[in-house]
Amino acid sequence: MSSATRASTRRCLRQALARRQKSLLTTKMQMALTESYQQRLESLLAVDEGIEQMIQALEATGELANTVIMFTSDNGYMLGEHRLHAGKTVAYEPSALVPLIITGPGFPANVQRRHPISQIDLAPTIADIAAATPTLTVDGVSLIPLARSPVGWPARHLVIEAGPRSLNGPMFYTGVRGSRYVYLEYHETVEVEFYDLMRDPYQLQNLEADPAYDGYQAQLARLLESMRNCVGADCR
Question: Is residue 229 one of the residues assigned to a domain?
Answer without folding.
Answer: no
